[in-house]
Write a structure and sequence with these properties.
alpha/beta; Rossmann fold; 7-stranded parallel beta sheet; 7 strands; 39% helix; globular; binds NADP nicotinamide-adenine-dinucleotide phosphate
Length: 240
């Protein structure tokens, strides 16, 4: 029987495009927020679709549902992330910082992914090879920040990176065969990037399918020695 992959934020453009390739090797369990329908092609290829509002009680229930039907997780992918929304606009200047906005960025981009890892980790076998890949962003690299702007998005992805790095240190002792990594997908045509892509040259704006192929290829090649890395879609290391 194929191992199980859980993909959170499964309705994201990138995650949806990853599902067909993941389904070749895994039984895929898609997790979305409540009331989200999966796209037809992704929906046909998943083994199960669960919803979660990512509160801690809901994450406990999610873990229990996965445990009772699929037992173990060999691959966890998290694509949850936000950049803009009804009350959310990336800040260009310090004067635009707003407590509620910053709270949203940190909740969605850093805290939710970390809690997904916390609650689903008990389903990851300790003694077998397993992988956990979280979609971060190059723009969250502190050492790479030359342009400024987008305070909340950058800072929340930097926080995600630190949470993942810290977990990777701890888990390298308890889960020696786990590779836990942060992945940069590249600028990809999606609802998240759509308002900001007019100045991105066409050859630097990738389709979700191209990005998905690249990310699945990086994930396929992961070994436990890769744990704690921040990885570009081409497989190279990114500065934290
Ligand atoms: N597109 C890019 O250029 C780019 C570049 C660098 C990094 N990334 C990262 O790649 C990941 C996927 O992005 P994408 O481009 O595929 O974007 P997307 O299509 O907008 O998907 C983002 C997904 O995150 C989940 N999400 C959004 N708001 C949420 C909230 N308030 N609470 C919980 N979940 C929420 C949703 O999943 P459900 O609908 O399934 O619940 C949504 O589909 C994100 O982490 C993003 O930061 C993207």
């Amino acid at each position: 029987m194929k191992p199980v992959a859980v993909i959170a934020g499964a309705n994201s453009a990138i995650a949806t495009a990853m599902i067909p390739a993941l389904a070749e090797k895994y039984r895929v369990v898609a997790v979305t927020r409540p009331d989200r329908k999966l796209g037809v092609s992704a929906g046909d290829q998943v083994d199960g679709h669960l919803s979660c509002d990512y509160s801690e009680p809901a994450l406990e229930e999610l873990a229990e549902s996965i445990r009772s039907e699929w037992e173990e997780i060999h691959l966890l992918v998290c694509a949850v992330g936000t950049l803009h929304g009804a009350n959310l606009t990336p800040e260009k200047r310090l004067a635009e910082l707003d407590r509620d906005q910053l709270d949203q960025y940190f909740q969605v981009n850093a805290i939710t992914p970390a809690l997904i890892l916390k609650h689903l980790l008990p389903l990851v076998p300790r003694g077998e090879p397993a992988k956990a890949a979280f979609l971060s962003a190059k723009i969250g690299g502190i050492g790479d920040n030359r342009l400024g702007g987008w305070y909340g998005y950058r800072a929340s992805k930097a926080a995600l990176n630190m949470l993942l790095k810290t977990a990777s240190v701890e888990l390298s002792r308890s889960h020696r065969k786990l590779s836990l990594v942060a992945l940069h997908p590249g600028t990809t045509d999606s609802p998240l990037s759509e308002p900001f892509t007019s100045n991105v040259p066409d050859d630097n704006l990738y389709s979700p399918e191209t990005t998905a192929d690249r990310l699945v290829s990086v994930i396929s090649g992961l070994t436990p020695e890769d744990t704690g890395r921040f990885i570009h879609w081409d497989g190279s290391d990114l500065p934290w």
